[in-house]
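Researcher: Next sequence.
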Amino acid sequence: MATEPAALALPSAGPDEVAVTLQVNGETHTVVVDPRTTLLDALRERLALPGTKKGCDRGACGACTVLVAGQRINSCLTLAIMHDDQAITTIEGLAQGDDLHPVQAAFLECDAFQCGYCTPGQIMSAVALLDEGHTGSAAEIQEWMSGNICRCGAYNHILDAIQHVAQGGR
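Model: Next structure:
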């Protein structure tokens, strides 16, 4: 008669939840999260900001791009607790009321999206790219946007939109 193997000790559910203050789109939000919660999940699930998309959840597609202190990051690769009290901008925070951000307006004008799933991340990366000054040539823009994938293939229109804004267009 075979004996049952000794029961394996199961790991605990994890560390206790912690309160994090997130400065999102100019508003202060205090959320209670598991310390392992990504910034992406905190934005989508705790703050009900669905514009930031969950694409690959591995930092390879750019759909989750947001700005933290003006720098673009993949929000799926960082923990919410790492951004306590830092300025975070999501796609929902770009427009000023009914006035679209110039990049948002250019994406519409240049038809720089098809299905639209990658569009928020593309726009957030484009805003950062313009602020960083990486618009010297089409090749430079393409290189600095290379972390954002468009499965529909709207790259030429995305490039047109970014160049339009870089050249002073609205």
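Model: The longest strand covers residues 18-24. Residues 102-166 form a domain with the DNA polymerase; domain 1 fold (CATH 1.10.150.120).
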